[in-house]
Amino acid sequence: MFDNIINSIKGRPTVLLFDVNETLLDTSAMQKAVNETFNNELAFKLWFSQLIAYSLVETVTGQYHDFSKVGQAAMHMTTEILGQDVSEAKQKELVEMVKKTQPHPDVIPGLEKLREAGFRMATLSNSPSKSSVPHLEEAGLKDFFEATLSVDSVEKFKPDASTYQYAADKLNVKLGDMMMIAAHGWDIAGALRADVRAAFISRPGQSLYPLAPEPELTAPTLLDLAEKLIKMG
To answer: Which residue among 44, 64, 99 closes a domain?
Structure first.
C-alpha cells in the first residue's frame, strides 16, 4: 500500500533506461556452453563475476579496455581458477557468443506495450557500441529505442555514477527523470545511488544487493513490469 502511494506521487518516469545483456537478451545458451566446456555448473557465473569485478578495477584505477577485452581476460582467468586447459580459440568463441544472444520471450511484447503507452526508451550498456548496436538491430530491438548508449563514450563502466549522468545528458533529462531497468543487483544499486529511479526484473539466478536501497518496482518479466509502469499513471 505504502509503495503504491509513493509511486503514484512520483508518477511515470520520463525515460526508461534499459540494461541489455541478461535484462533484454537471454544468455542461457551461452551459459550452457561455458558450463559444459568447463564441466562446471558455476563456470559461467564465475566468468561473469570476474568480468564485472575487473571492469570495476579498470574504472577505479583510471584505465579502460572495452567490455569485450575485459571479457576475454576474465575468460582466461576462469580457465586458470578452474584449472582447465581451454584453448585461446575456444575461449574467444565462448566470449563472442554474447553477440548472438536473442531476446527473452517477454521482451518484445513488453517493449511493444510500453511503446504503445507512450514511454520514451533508451539502452545503456557496458558493451561497446560497435558490437552492441548492430546486435540490438539484428535481434529486432533497436527500433524500440530513441538512443542506444554505451559506456565506451565515457570510458567508465556501470555502476559508476558518471555512466548514468552521461545517459541523462544525452537524453536531455535530469537523473531523477530516468528509471534504470535491469536484471542485475549491482546495476540497480548503482542507479539508485546516482539518484536514478530503478526497476528490477528478477530473472532466474539474479538477486538484489541487500545493502542498497530498494527499487520502486520489481517484476519477474518485462511484460509484468510494463503493466506496473502503465498503472503508475
So the answer is: 99
